[in-house]
Specification:
single chain; about 220 residues; alpha/beta; Rossmann fold; eight-stranded mixed beta sheet; 8 helices; about 35% helix; about 25% strand
Length: about 220
């Protein structure tokens, strides 16, 4: 890891450690409103392999999506750069009577040995990574054969983020079927009306890579 990237990771860790205490105040972060929580549960259930598939929640923050996944019956592992975030994630998991493994880990360099997950879920993290294409390649190596990558990303009114076409262009060639679900008009997911671009990108990985240009794309 270069000194610049290492310094960036340290700054990010401090930023999210400082943000942990109030992170769940946002409706789409804490998912404390039952209507918002149920909307995410429906979206994830419709987008992932059937439980009890093993799911890695990268950049899980305070564990809100991890808890939704565990309640749906998935075998969940959550990782985050911020130890302060994971302290809250573990407390929420214990209070809910659920079992989720949490590990402090840099999303850019996940420390797992070989393919062991049926699906990876990552919400609003990829855009902030210094080398997103390299991160996606590393994530693909953690997926079992025919594993699925589910990214929730956006391009915000501030001019930051990633547009869905940009993410598709970053995907490793092992992902041969890509589907984009537009989420901007679904206020129930965010707890309010939004106007910027929000979407879910679902990519299925095959072990036999297709010829160049053979990736199949679907937009919903």
């Amino acid at each position: 890891m270069s000194e610049d990237i290492q310094h960036s990771a340290q700054k990010a860790r401090q930023f999210w450690d400082d943000a942990a205490a109030h992170f769940d105040d946002e409706p789409d972060h804490g998912l404390q409103d039952p209507l918002v929580r149920e909307a995410w549960a429906r979206l994830l259930a419709d987008s992932l392999p059937s439980p009890p598939a093993a799911v890695l929640d990268i950049g899980c923050g305070t564990g809100s999506l991890s808890l939704v996944l565990a309640r749906l019956g998935y075998d969940v592992t959550g990782t985050d750069l911020s130890a302060a975030m994971l302290i809250r994630a573990k407390a929420k998991t214990k209070a809910a009577g659920l079992s989720i493994r949490f590990r402090v880990m840099d999303a850019s360099k996940p420390d797992f040995s070989g393919p062991q997950f049926d699906a990876i879920v990552c919400r609003h993290v990829l855009w902030a990574l210094p080398e997103p294409a390299l991160a996606l390649q590393r994530w693909s190596e953690l997926l079992a054969p025919r594993g699925r990558l589910v990214l929730i990303e956006g391009y915000w009114h501030t001019g930051t983020g990633l547009q869905s076409q940009q993410v598709m262009e970053l995907l490793p060639p092992a992902f041969t079927a890509v589907k984009v679900k537009h989420l901007s008009g679904q206020a129930e997911l965010w707890g309010r009306e939004i106007t910027d671009e929000r979407y879910m990108l679902i990519a299925d990985q095959k072990r036999i890579q297709p010829p160049t240009g053979a990736r199949r794309q679907t937009v919903i």
